[in-house]
Every structure is written in structure tokens, then in C-alpha cells.
Design a protein that fits this description.
The chain is elongated and about 95 Å long. It contains ten helices and 15 strands. It is an alpha+beta fold. The strands form four sheets. Strands 10-11-9-14-15 form a five-stranded mixed β-sheet, with helices on both faces.
Length: 326
């Protein structure tokens, strides 16, 4: 028992305790060994034990939304973990496993409360020391947690945002339209949809190269995004195809936005080189737009998309750089 007491005396957990008090804590500890790779406990399990690392290294892992896991912290000799489970009675918030052969001292939850009940002075000192240890751990782990939050936000954006244009993607547009038309209010929904193609986009790619085409998409997306308002959705479908969903808007607002989009595309200043060493050349860009409104032109989201697409086809067949209604 003396070797356990000597080990505990130098730990922050027993800071401020007398020799007798440290010996009282040591009497409740159980030594337990874990081999490399062996799990101490898993995330979500009910916890009723506190662990102190006597030798070896224990890693703490958090599960990520994509199903993988990431190491949050590493506990070496003298560090404790698992204390929140016996204090709060909450499930384990991480998985801990041994990185190498490790020996741990284990304090059972019932023994912890017996110790606090039988020796309240020791209990106060233990809880104070545990608070200091937890504060230090949180300071070190905060960087990871902040990174995890940023990762989650970036992943959420990647799921609904088109990287090249900066607008929403088709998935988000489809979900928004489906929700709007499935509201179940009993009345026919009021909404408009605009479909837009950049005119002769293949020619621009052929003349100046794919990088110029990407730059044109990015410039158009930036310009188009400034024209929508409120809950209106601007999205890039694929290639040079864009769509704009206007919940609650009728044909008047749809035509207004369509003309603004057409003018914005025509007003873009794009300058590219046809090849290395060539002089910069101005590239003109125009757009054809077709739109449809519900309930005048369609009763469902599918019908609205089909009607707007047919109107876009007529705009292109009619000479491009123009707006047509279903």
C-alpha cells in the first residue's frame, strides 16, 4: 500500500492532503491492467468508475459525424479520466483505449461516495482537485472542439453549397421546392421558378479553356447571388445551368428577376487569354431565362420545373439573351 500512497502523494488529485488522507484514498483503489489497443470504456456506455493512469498511455477518441473517430486527448501517468461519469451520472462522452500496456488505478463510483460520506474533508479536497484537473483538460481540448465545430459547419455547407458558383446546389433546391409544395395547408402554393443557361458557354470553353469557363461560372454566381432576396433560392444545377426558386412570388416578380439576371450576365466584365503569350481578350456573356409560376402554370413542383424548362428552351430557340414565360 505504501507504493500506492507514494504515487498518489505527488498527484494534483491529492494536492493538499495529509499522508493519512492519501492513505484513505489509496485504500479504495483497485489496480487494473490494459494491453495495447484494449478498450477501457466506450462512448455512450454507463460510467461508474474513475481512472488514474499509473503507467502507460490512454487515448480518448470522439466519434465524428462521418463515422470516423479522432483522438481528443492522451492521458499519461498521473492523469485521471472518467470523473464526469461518476459525478454527473451521464453516459461516457468518448471512447478510451490503451496506446500501450498500461496500469490504471480504478475508483468505483460507490466507493467514491463512501469516501466522501465517511471523510467529508477528503471529499472536499478531492472534488476541488478534480475541478482543477477538468479545467486544465478543457483548456487543452478546446482547440480540438473548436476545430470539430468548424469541421461540422464546413461539412454542412459542403452538403448544400456549390463550390464553384457559391450558390446552393440542386439537392438544396429540390428539397426546398418539395417542402414548399408538400406543406399540406390545403391551398395551392404560390411560387415561381426560373431556369437560366449561359449562352454559347461551350464556345467560351473552347476558345479560352476550362479555367476560363470556371471563372465565368464563379463570376456569374457571385452576380446572380446578389439579386435574390428574402427566402428566394439561387442555385447552380450543373455546368452553366442555374435555377431560382421564388416562394410566394407570382409572374411579376419572376419576370423582374429574370430580366435582372439577364442584364447581370450581359454586364459581366470577363477578360481571358486564348493561350500563353496571347493578348487578353474580352469575352462576352449572355443568358437565356425561362420561368413559370404556380398555380397559374403548374400545380406541383415537378410540373413547375418542366414548365420553366420548356420556357427556357423557347428563349434559346428564339435567339438567346432573352426571357420567356411558360
Amino acid at each position: 500500500m505504501s507504493h500506492v500512497t507514494d504515487f498518489l502523494s505527488g498527484l494534483p488529485l491529492c494536492e493538499g492532503m495529509s499522508g493519512l488522507e492519501v492513505a484513505a484514498v489509496a485504500a479504495f483503489l483497485e489496480a487494473r491492467r490494459f494491453e495495447a489497443g484494449e478498450v477501457v470504456f466506450r462512448e455512450g456506455e454507463t460510467g461508474n468508475e474513475l481512472f488514474i493512469v499509473r503507467s502507460g498511455r490512454i487515448a480518448s477518441y470522439a466519434a465524428l459525424p462521418d463515422g470516423s473517430r479522432r483522438q481528443v486527448y492522451e492521458f499519461g501517468p498521473g492523469l485521471l479520466f472518467g470523473e464526469m461519469a461518476i459525478i454527473e451520472g451521464e453516459p461516457r462522452t468518448a471512447t478510451c483505449s490503451a496506446l500501450e500496456p498500461s496500469e490504471l488505478f480504478v475508483l468505483d463510483g460507490l466507493d467514491f461516495y463512501r469516501l466522501v460520506w465517511d471523510h467529508p474533508v477528503i471529499g472536499v479536497k478531492l472534488l476541488a482537485a478534480m475541478g482543477r484537473v477538468m479545467s486544465a483538460w478543457l483548456d487543452e481540448a478546446s482547440g480540438f472542439l473548436g476545430g470539430l465545430v468548424r469541421w461540422g459547419e464546413a461539412a454542412r455547407k459542403r452538403a448544400v453549397i456549390d463550390d464553384l458558383s457559391g450558390l446552393f446546389n440542386r439537392r438544396f433546391l429540390d428539397d426546398t421546392m418539395r417542402t414548399r409544395f408538400a406543406s399540406g395547408s390545403g391551398s395551392k402554393p404560390r411560387a415561381s421558378l426560373l431556369m437560366l443557361d449561359l449562352d454559347r458557354f461551350r464556345d467560351l470553353n473552347a476558345t479560352f479553356g476550362p479555367a476560363a469557363g470556371d471563372a465565368a461560372i464563379a463570376s456569374a454566381g457571385a452576380a446572380f447571388g446578389t439579386l435574390v432576396r428574402g427566402e428566394e433560392v439561387a442555385a447552380r444545377l450543373s455546368g452553366d445551368e442555374f435555377a431560382f426558386f421564388l416562394p410566394g412570388a407570382g409572374p411579376e416578380r419572376a419576370r423582374e428577376l429574370a430580366e435582372e439576371l439577364r442584364a447581370a450576365a450581359e454586364g459581366l466584365f470577363l477578360e481571358f487569354r486564348a493561350g500563353p503569350g496571347s493578348k487578353p481578350a474580352r469575352a462576352s456573356l449572355t443568358a437565356s431565362v425561362g420561368f413559370a409560376s404556380a398555380p397559374e402554370d403548374a400545380a406541383t413542383a415537378e410540373e413547375l420545373s418542366a414548365a420553366a424548362d420548356k420556357a427556357l428552351y423557347r428563349a434559346k430557340e428564339g435567339g438567346r439573351n432573352r426571357v420567356e414565360r411558360a
